[in-house]
């Protein structure tokens, strides 16, 4: 790509493209000029480790040869509306069901994650005849009206006043919990008691579903305490409520298992997915229905649909992407290199600005604070998207990019979620860049020695 082409792209972008979650006048997007594996290069030919797999989807890395090949083969397959059966759609559904927990039976394909969640709400309402939907604070479920209403943080505010019957409950967040629990199990019991009480007060026979991200992702990779998810399952089963796990971010190997729920001894009633199913090479999402939920629709009309449900091109890319997970042992690699990452994260605790580190597989967050003792967050709640006048998180993320470590942050957490093809050596190289950036940030921005005032 030459300079004139790059300038044209930037000019057209500024003039014609609306960018998500931003004041348009301040948007200055990078142009990716080339990419390979875990790396991309920007318009200055600056090489970056893609440490968030774009938006936590590029699990097989940039420009994977097998996926590029799969694109060539789609030309041979006729495009077909959802009412038709196609080889890519049926094969992909089979691959997904076989990789999912044992009780899962069928897939309804959507275009992405948000509409997968919208459909899971509709399916739960149809299958139970109930209308209330529980979801958690500190969750993100997507930007459509339905998924926006499920979302438990400030990205929901624009779709309010929201949908009646959508109820929020707390996510266990032990780092910021003010109570002192003697064990993770004790913490789980506390949060489950509160959830139980909310279920009773909302009327269990009116609640269709409890939605949760098994490990909330963009809200800071909040690992559930021991026994918590199983406890939610037990409460749902007791009251005939469907448990729906949003695995849009955690699914397809991100945590070291195909689905994050497979780390735990329970099975949800539905799983929503997107991103990693095609490694983001083509848009696709969906809902996996358990045998029981799927069977309900044998004799009841499945009263919903989408023009592109099971789109041939996306399904073909999905099949190729899922084959790569197996052929290249990406789940195993995520567990192994995730272990290396976890070690490096532990070492970050020596920094004054690091409050907490959390990870599972190749899914991690570093939570930054202004003060380790008081845990004052580096950025107050609701101050993303340029609202924070100090701009501290933004400065840190920009410094990381400058060092060649590309990622994004939400509130005070920096997300680390590289492609699942990363090697142990590359994890170490990238984390060296992270440490260099953090050291400079502390010395020059956050705690500069010369700001000590002498009275
Ligand atoms: C957990 C979760 N659910 C849903 C979504 C929404 O997915 P999409 O942007 O494909 O609609 C996201 C997006 O990041 C997500 O992280």
Automatic annotation (TrEMBL):
Keyword line: Aminotransferase, Pyridoxal phosphate, Transferase
GO terms of molecular function: pyridoxal phosphate binding; transaminase activity
Gene3D superfamilies cross-referenced by the UniProt entry: Aspartate Aminotransferase, domain 1 (3.90.1150.10), Type I PLP-dependent aspartate aminotransferase-like (Major domain) (3.40.640.10)
The keyword Oxidoreductase appears for this protein: no
GO cellular component: cytosol
NCBIfam families for the chain: PRK06062.1
Family per record: Belongs to the class-III pyridoxal-phosphate-dependent aminotransferase family.
Protein name (database record): Class III aminotransferase
Species per Swiss-Prot/TrEMBL record: Heyndrickxia coagulans (Weizmannia coagulans)
Classification lineage: Bacteria, Bacillati, Bacillota, Bacilli, Bacillales
């Amino acid at each position: 790509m030459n300079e004139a082409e790059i300038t044209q792209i930037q000019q057209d972008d500024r003039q014609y493209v609306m960018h998500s979650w931003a004041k348009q006048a301040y948007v200055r997007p990078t142009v990716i000029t080339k990419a390979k594996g875990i790396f991309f290069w920007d318009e200055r030919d600056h090489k970056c480790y893609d440490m968030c797999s774009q938006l936590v989807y590029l699990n097989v890395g940039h420009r994977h040869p097998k996926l590029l090949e799969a694109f060539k083969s789609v030309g041979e397959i006729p495009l077909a509306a959802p009412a038709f059966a196609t080889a890519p759609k049926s094969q992909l559904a089979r691959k997904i069901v076989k990789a999912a927990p044992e009780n899962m039976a069928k897939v309804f394909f959507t275009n992405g994650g948000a509409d997968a969640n919208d459909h899971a709400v509709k399916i739960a309402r149809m299958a139970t005849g109930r209308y209330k939907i529980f979801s958690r604070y500190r969750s993100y479920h997507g930007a459509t009206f339905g998924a926006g209403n499920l979302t438990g943080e400030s990205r929901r505010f624009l779709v309010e006043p929201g949908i009646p019957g959508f109820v929020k409950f707390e996510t266990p967040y032990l780092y910021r919990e003010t109570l002192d629990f003697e064990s993770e199990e004790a913490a789980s019991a506390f949060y489950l008691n509160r959830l139980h009480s909310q279920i009773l007060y909302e009327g269990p026979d009116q609640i269709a579903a409890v939605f949760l991200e098994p490990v909330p992702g963009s809200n800071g990779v909040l690992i559930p305490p021991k026994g918590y998810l199983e406890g939610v399952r037990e409460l749902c089963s007791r009251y005939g409520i469907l448990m729906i796990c949003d695995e849009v971010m955690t699914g397809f190997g991100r945590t070291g298992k195909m689905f994050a729920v497979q780390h735990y001894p329970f099975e949800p009633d539905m799983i929503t997915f997107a991103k990693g199913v095609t490694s983001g090479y083509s848009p696709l999402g969906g809902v996996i229905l358990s045998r029981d939920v799927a069977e309900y629709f044998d004799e009841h009309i499945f009263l919903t649909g989408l023009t592109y449900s099971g789109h041939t091109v996306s399904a073909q890319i999905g099949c190729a992407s899922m084959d790569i997970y197996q052929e290249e042992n990406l789940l195993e690699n995520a567990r192994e290199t995730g272990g290396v990452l976890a070690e490096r994260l532990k070492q970050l605790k020596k920094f004054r600005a690091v409050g907490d580190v959390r990870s599972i597989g190749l899914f991690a967050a570093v939570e930054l604070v202004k003060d380790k003792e008081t845990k004052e967050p580096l950025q107050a709640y609701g101050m993303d998207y340029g609202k924070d006048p100090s701009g501290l998180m933004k400065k840190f993320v920009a410094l990381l990019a400058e060092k060649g470590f590309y990622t994004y942050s939400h509130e005070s957490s920096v997300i680390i979620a590289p492609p699942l093809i990363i090697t142990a050596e590359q994890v170490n190289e990238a984390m060296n860049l992270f440490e260099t950036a953090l050291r400079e940030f502390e010395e020059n921005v956050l705690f500069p020695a010369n700001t000590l005032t002498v009275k």
